[in-house]
Amino acid sequence: MSFLDRLFGRTPDAREAMRPLWHATVVAARDPLWYRELGVADSVEGRFDMITLALALVLLRLEREPGRAPEETGDAVRLTELFVDDMDAQLRQSGVGDLMVGKHMGKLMATLGGRLGALREALPHGEAAVAAVVERNVSLIEGARAEPLAAALLKLDASWAQIPLEAILAGRLEQ
Questions:
Q1: Quick one: pLDDT band at residue 175, thresholds 50, 70, 90?
Q2: Rounded to 5°, angle at Cα 9 from 96 and 167
Q3: Residue ranges per domain, the chain?
Q4: Dist CA 82 CA 103 (whole Å)
Q5: Burial class (CB in 10 A: 0-12, 13-18, 19+), 127
Q6: DSSP label at residue 11
Q7: What DSSP line would sit under 51-91, residue for residue?
Q8: Mean pLDDT of 102-124
Q9: Chain segment 62-77, per-residue pLDDT in tens
Q10: What distances in angstroms separate CA 31 from CA 24, 26, 42, 46, 119, one per listed residue?
């Protein structure tokens, strides 16, 4: 879809269907529990870490849906595009200039891709494997251990696995 089509409203933006899920993902990542009780640093870096972890769990949930390949539906792509739009806006709002936004976005996308791959590999192997991912990828406060956060991520992943796909796509991540 071209920019002009979106601007003049000729074609609806297909990403809008995924916006409730994007907002629910951000809400899940902003849950004070992560920061207050599980040791994630309450900083720009720590919040970005939680958004990418939550988004990776959602993308993996979509990926594991039986009989429905996300690459065929485009759901994962549209959800990731919303992430890109949001991060781009955040960078610009924080004062990153136009010439540097692309470079920063490349790094942010690489980070998301790395976490997605690491979680895809670690989740089936349990808490110790997920804790290793947390230790490598999450800004924790001084003295925080990775295991409680890993256990909470596994619990969240298991919870989202029980929610019907229609509810997930509608942004209802709570049971």
A1: low
A2: 80
A3: 3-169
A4: 18
A5: middle
A6: S
A7: HHHHHHHHHHHHHTSTT--HHHH-HHHHHHHHHHHHHHHHH
A8: 86
A9: 999 877 765 667 898 9
A10: 11, 9, 11, 12, 20
